[in-house]
Amino acid sequence: MKLRNSALAVLLSIMLVPGLSSAQQGEWLVAPYIWMSDVGWDISARGSGTIAFSDIVDKIDGAGLIRVEYARNQIGFTFDYVGLSLSDSRRISTGGILPVDIDIRANVDMTVFEAGAFWRPSRTDSGIDVIAGFRTTDVDSNLIVTPANTQPQRFDSSSSFTDFYAGARYLHRFTETWDFSIRGDYGIGGSDGALNLMASVGWRTRGAFGMSLAYRHLTFDIDERIEGEPATNKFDFSGPALGFMFRF
Description:
It is built from 1 helix and 10 strands. The chain has one domain: Beta Barrel (Lipocalin), CATH 2.40.128.90. The N terminus is likely disordered.
């Protein structure tokens, strides 16, 4: 997707800013994560009537996530990139007097690029950070719907939108080795609302390496058109993530 190239270009540009990589001027954090996300997708299409499918996708799958941060004194910058691709199939019934079984095959490809800045009153990574920025999301999806004893029907959609978000995060250090952090933010703009929550327990060595066990929840609603008809898609991504932290 075009978003992948844009995200990489932004990250490379930041990395090449003269002087920023100097350890004397600030600290870099590079943290790749493996995110085992439980993915949920609901759709409601509105044409001559309303057609709603719940739990089209309800599946745990792996996603790649990388976070890059730079902090100096009270100011810092943060960049996140998430990539996820999955497929799922299920059978649902319309209910009623004459129920009809419907087989559904769904495919979802999603990438998210986030760029933000934070203000750190404590001048250290302990305490509260106030954070704001933008989050760009690309979602490509398709449905193959096969009612009983009929021909399959295919519905494709592609959405790209940008939300501006604001929120805060807090880190409490129990010891030099162990810490606990939480983050919450809400975005709006291209979507009908996007909620991002994360909590984690971190461990670090006296050197540059550390690890983080986190739980992340991301949900957003988007309005679009599928086969010319207005529709609302709701996506939920929730699950644990294991991160490897490198500071320099």
